[in-house]
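FAQ
Q: What does a multi-component entry look like?
A: The components come first, one per line:
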Amino acid sequence: MDDVFSSFDLVLRAFWLTLQLLVLSGVASLLLGTLLAALRVGPVKVLNRLGTLYVSVVRNTPLLVMFIFVFIASPTLDLFVGTPFLVKGVIALTIYTSAFVCEAVRSGINSVSLGQAEAARAIGLTFGGTMREVILPQAFRATVPPLASVLIALAKNTSVAAAFGLMEATARMRFFTNNNANDRVLIFLTFAIGYIIIVEVMSAGAYSFERRWRVAR
Amino acid sequence: MRLHTRFHRTAALVAGLGLALSGLAACGDAGDGDAETVDVEVEEDAADAFDDGTRMKELAESGEITIGVKFDQPGIGFKGATDDMPTGIDPEIGKILAASLGIAPEDITWKETISDNREPYLIDGEVDLVLASYSITPERREVVGQAGPYYVTGQQLLVASDSDIDSLDDVKGTEVCSVTGSTSLENIEAEGAEPRGFDTYSECVDQVLSGAVDAMTTDGAILLGYAAENPDELKVVVDPFSEERYGVGYSLDHPEMCQWIVDTLTEAQDGDAYDAAFEATLGQSGVDTPEAPEMDACPE
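Then the predicted structure of the entire assembly, as tokens:
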């Protein structure tokens, strides 16, 4: 255990990488997921199908398979060869998480009554305008709890990257447990606490959003 | 229909008897074969040990032993998806130890252990012995017993054949892969390389082959195995820069096992069993059979 505390900067660096993975793929997933949700609820049939296809393929594939595809399979097809590892990790996590974001956002959009969309159309807004000005602001409010769950899952999913060349928290934990067989439980607890702190901060953030937007209604 | 059933039952009975008989015969054969020196040794140990029933005696009487080995390290401990038995120096040493208890190789249960579960498996009695490229360290000896070393190796680098990496100084700032959480990865990080941990050695080799990382590092013996598989694309460079002493893991609940392991392995080294085990496994990748290492004295 002394080993862990004497090199605590390694622990912090590892959690910093976990946070980078979380924030980068979180932002990218929110963007891509919202776009996909727009495709799925939009008026263009082809795009509907495309969004549905993406969600059903990606959501039914394990995250580990996604990582294997990006890190192990793609290089044999000359894809992502020179890409930095962090970017590859973000790509794998984003592909996976955006499907769940899409569904969370879509559930929020469906919670906005049809009358709102009809009213927006009646005053001459385009589809894009209807979404941007009327539907999405209301939808995101209903979306906060399920999106928070998706992002919390993402925070923990970053640990899959441990087996794909990224020295994030879980990989660093295995580095310590390898050398300190006698302190395994304490090392597990130390790293578990790190994850708990990250997730608690996210939960608190989600809760404050929820409260603020509830008042605005 | 009824007749049919009865016929089947009779046939099954006959077949069962036949199997039982052949099973008996097989047991007899094994006993005649390589077990003669073995039983004597077990008796001696049992007499020496303070506890009446030593673990060795229990194992010898049960005729079964469970040994934890790696399944993903060619030359050390490797088992393909369709193989019945693992191959490599670790399983070979395991067979020598089991034989000294009168247990034939077929009666050994091989269990895959990964680096993280070797100590828990020993402590919980999930396996009786661990032979899984298990480097002897003081930290590990606090929680489990480690007898040996039976093999000493050192860390090297595997690079693409057109790579510029030639000495250990060249790895600074490059990306080097190995297995997540391994000592090799830690050592290369200390040399200033960016560590890239993967789940298995084969995934790591793929990264070198595709050029996603600059080099792979682990014990030289494993690297030579991969270089032999891809002689045109890969080469092993750098003199060994660490010393890994592979030991046999046993549970501290049975400290008497240490002396038995050391005695059995010393005997194998004095005879030609050890050399034969090496030549059949690691020797295949072109390494000379090393001088058998001197083993540590058992605690107490």
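Q: Is there any commentary attached?
A: Sometimes. For this entry: Chain A touches chain B through 23 residues (CB under 8 Å).
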